[in-house]
């Protein structure tokens, strides 16, 4: 019986420490985030060519190209932010809370207490990235038929609806957290 207990303890030790392998997606998520921040910066810099900045006679095609590059850069930044949130969240859920973050006064955007919360944050940023991507596509879209206008209008309507649902869901989550916190305080009294 004693031998079985020792085997169980060793197995539990191995299983518990297996979570260290989640450092692999954390490290590569951070490296990928850095990569997307660099790509976004290069895209914005490319869009801000000096010959357009000092030329006061803009051609509409040139302006659309500049705006398209800047929006493309924002899109890369948003993907980098998704990867950053993912990396912080996985680390805090599976490895350890970041002690340095607990001392900081910065926003609680990077605080993640569960996989469900991490998933919600990532989905919100992805929706914003999709909105930016759609905006970039609409800039260069040539409307030839009236159905094209209907498609663009439908896409904008779906974006508005998804934004509303995202806001409503986050508002309900915050309200539930406040209620749970209040209930916990009442139970402790």
From TrEMBL:
Pfam families reported in the protein's UniProt record: UPF0114
Keywords: Membrane, Transmembrane, Transmembrane helix
NAD as UniProt keyword: no
Transmembrane residue ranges: 20-46, 66-94, 122-143, 149-167
Signal sequence extent: none
Stated name of the protein: YqhA family protein
Species this protein is from: Gloeothece citriformis (strain PCC 7424)
Lineage: Bacteria, Bacillati, Cyanobacteriota, Cyanophyceae, Oscillatoriophycideae
């Amino acid at each position: 019986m004693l031998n079985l207990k020792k085997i169980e303890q060793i197995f539990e030790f191995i299983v518990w420490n297996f979570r260290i392998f989640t450092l692999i997606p954390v490290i590569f998520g951070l490296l990928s985030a850095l990569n997307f921040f660099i790509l976004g910066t290069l895209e914005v810099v490319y869009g801000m060519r000096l010959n357009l900045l000092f030329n006061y006679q803009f051609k509409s095609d040139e302006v659309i190209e500049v705006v398209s590059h800047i929006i493309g850069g924002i899109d890369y930044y948003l993907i980098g932010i998704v990867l950053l949130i993912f990396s912080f969240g996985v680390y805090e859920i599976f490895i350890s809370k970041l002690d340095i973050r607990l001392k900081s006064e910065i926003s609680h955007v990077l605080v993640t207490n569960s996989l469900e919360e991490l998933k919600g944050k990532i989905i919100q940023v992805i929706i914003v990235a999709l909105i930016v991507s759609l905006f970039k596509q609409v800039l260069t879209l040539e409307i030839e038929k009236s159905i094209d206008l209907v498609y663009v209008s439908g896409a904008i309507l779906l974006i508005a609806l998804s934004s509303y649902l995202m806001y409503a869901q986050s508002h309900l989550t915050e309200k539930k957290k406040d209620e749970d916190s209040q209930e916990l305080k009442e139970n402790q009294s």
